[in-house]
Amino acid sequence: MNDTFLRACRLEPTDSTPVWFMRQAGRYMSEYRAIRARHTLLEICRQPELAAEVTLQPVNRIDVDAAILFSDLLLPLDPLGIPFDFVKGEGPAIERPVRSADDVRRLTRFEPREALEHVLATIRLVRRELDGRVPLIGFAGAPFTLASYAIEGGASRAYALTKGLMYSEPEVWHRLCETFAEVVSDYLLAQIEAGVQAVQLFDSWVGALSVRDYREFALPHTQRIISAVAGSGVPVIHFGTGTATLLEAMTEAGGDVVGVDWRVALDEAWERIGTDKAVQGNLDPTLLLGPVHRMLDGAEAILRQAGGRPGHIFNLGHGILPETPVENVQALAHFVHARGA
Question: Is 214 among the catalytic positions?
């Protein structure tokens, strides 16, 4: 098996810099658009054969060193009693937002090996289809990000409702996040049992917090998840966006790898995180929309900042954008392998 990615997670030397891309399966690929023309996003997530097919599409076309499970971080909300759907052009819409102590009390604990068995079936199917080519990464959402969706009723820019509950009713907030931490811990362990070889904890919106608020309202719950998974033996990647001010606190929360976005230089981020951890990142996804030479210059700068040290996993600072040309993604992966050797 190509274990370059896993070795980098463990800070072991590699022959070349491993590369994979967040949202490497998705709307920028014609194969995915063909499936989406016939099925909703949730239908794909809930049908293992379709989810496995989409997971494998980028592995078959792009020289990546890891596959990431095609799923959605909101999937645990529905069995908890927070139904949602995706509205075209608007993203996720929560049917009944969680905004009070009573709403939190009504949430239903569930067994992920039953309620989310379709995800685990996808993992088993993908592992068989991969046949050892590259490792498979599983993932879940961190409590702050899940809570922000549940409270706001969907995506947000200011997180006013989220922070309003957080500040005015901290006990309710912590009960909600404790629930998410418990569910996500079990869910990730179930994914590992099903066969994923690494997991990524997405705290996509945590950059909305100050360092002080992160330590009080997010860190304990994220730390609980990472601690629960740490004994499994698989690497844990801890990722958020807009986190240039939070890197030290995120490092305290744990994980073998810390994901870095494009708003901070990789070498500066690594120094702040500590060289005892691996780092993942951190090209601006919009560079893949421009001239190829500029995209490759950006990648060259990141590889230079990494300095050839063991423990660098090349990735974007966030997901591939839908309008990205596939050939640019292919060229970037090839370039990283050639220059990162």
Answer: no
- The active-site residue, picked from 149, 159, 187, 214, is 149
Residue keyed to tokens 């990472």: 226
The pTM of the whole model exceeds 0.90: yes
CATH numeric code, 4-339: 3.20.20.210
Token digits for 159? 């997180």
**Please, are residues 71 and 54 in contact by the beta-carbon 8 Å criterion?**
no
Q: Residues in the chain, how many?
A: 341
Map tokens 């951890």 to a residue.
277
Residue 133 falls in the annotated catalytic set: no
Reported as a single tens digit per residue, the pLDDT across 78-118 is 999 999 999 876 689 999 999 999 999 999 999 999 999 99
- Residue pair 97/51 in contact by the 8 Å Cβ criterion: no
Active site residue 23: yes
Output the pLDDT for position 91. 84
In the chain, domain spans: 4-339
86: which 2 tokens? Answer: 């995706």
Can you read off the two tokens belonging to residue 90? 């608007």
Peptide bond between residue 282 and the one before it cis (omega within 30 degrees of 0): yes
Nearest to 217 by CA among 149, 272, 168, 156: 168
Is residue 72 among the annotated active site residues?
yes
